[in-house]
UniProtKB/TrEMBL annotation:
<dbReference type="GO" id="GO:0000160">
    <property type="term" value="P:phosphorelay signal transduction system"/>
</dbReference>
<feature type="domain" description="Response regulatory">
    <location>
        <begin position="11"/>
        <end position="120"/>
    </location>
</feature>
<dbReference type="InterPro" id="IPR011006">
    <property type="entry name" value="CheY-like_superfamily"/>
</dbReference>
<dbReference type="InterPro" id="IPR001789">
    <property type="entry name" value="Sig_transdc_resp-reg_receiver"/>
</dbReference>
<protein>
    <recommendedName>
        <fullName>Response regulatory domain-containing protein</fullName>
    </recommendedName>
</protein>
Amino acid sequence: MQSLNSEFRDWVLVAESNYLIAEQLCSILQDWGFVALAAPDMKAAEDMMEKSLPIAALVCTHLNDGLCLALIRRLTRLKIPILILSGSTPEEADIELRSLPWCTKPCRTEDMRQALLNLLDPAVTPKATTGGCADRGDRLVSSPVVPTRFGS
């Protein structure tokens, strides 16, 4: 995975505690033309956002340091579009999360792509996402990924 530096202005935050899922999500987002950076917990996400704000965030409801509410509140205050990715349904979630766009894991990559595109301003959407992006058919928890590095 890539690390955040000054050359990345338009990036997507992937806040996901499961390393393999985070790697897969970042890989999928990169296939679509996004710069994607993963954070396993709220502290890592906050540290990344101190350097640069993401154009969107994919957030799992439970991160390594707890329920994601503090991160969701900050992203909301900053008007950063949020897509929740969770193994639970919106009805099972904290009431603060229920109104957010939601993909229940496992989900089809095409469903996630469409949900993300619905959140984004077309001006920041990579061209790769708008045409010819076939659904790879994988589920978000199905493919093993060779570990590299997590966070940073």
